[in-house]
Amino acid sequence: MSLLSNLTRAQKVYNDLCAMLESYKWKFEKNDSDLSIKFTATGEDIPMDFLLKADAGRQLLSLYSVMPFTAPEGKKDDMAVACCVAGNGLWDGSFDFDYESGRVTYRMTASFIGSDIGKGLFRYMIAMSGKVVDRYNDKLLAVCSGSMSLEDFIKEETNNKHS
């Protein structure tokens, strides 16, 4: 596929996503030059920031939510394990832990190589990521701050998978 048609497909995904969000009267910030959208959602506890980006080169729609905390040096090993444990039970998406910076990011992607994607997938990505981030952001913060031990986090996750 040519670079121009890749860009055209990415722009269509971006425009369709913007149109859907506008039709729902969502508040969001769009960046036409890099085909990205930022918005904030309110869950049960911690506000959640999201970035959606249509990547023309890789033909991917990517959704990112960076947690509003970073792991201090003494908690990085625990956070790396906690992100792996949390990610083990996810139906879609993953938690990425940057060991150097201590930053945790939730990420979900969908390919649009040779295909059209639309409202159903956009709604799914936003809803699923909102559920996942809202479920885990406070627990990961608790491990990061030391108010929950890694062992307790693992026990809770293990019990939740079997219930």
Can you put this structure into words, describing what you see?
The protein is of the alpha+beta class and 163 residues long. The chain starts with a helix and ends with a helix. The relative contact order is 0.16. The protein is elongated, with a radius of gyration of 17 Å. It has four helices and six strands; from the N terminus they run αββββαββαα. A six-stranded antiparallel β-sheet has the order 1-2-3-4-6-5. Helices cover 45% and strands 26% of the residues. A hairpin with a 6-residue loop joins strand 2 and strand 3.
Structural topology:
Blueprint: H1 3-23, E1 29-31, E2 36-41, E3 48-55, E4 60-70, H2 76-88, E5 94-98, E6 103-111, H3 119-145, H4 150-161
Antiparallel strand pairs: 1-2, 2-3, 3-4, 4-6, 5-6
Give the tags.
163 residues, alpha+beta, 6-stranded antiparallel beta sheet
The topology string of helices and strands comes to HEEEEHEEHH
User: In what order do the strands lie side by side in the largest sheet?
Assistant: 1-2-3-4-6-5
How far apart the termini lie comes to 47 Å
Approximately how much helix is present in the residues?
Answer: 40-55%
**Sequence stretches where pLDDT stays below 50 over 5 or more residues:** none
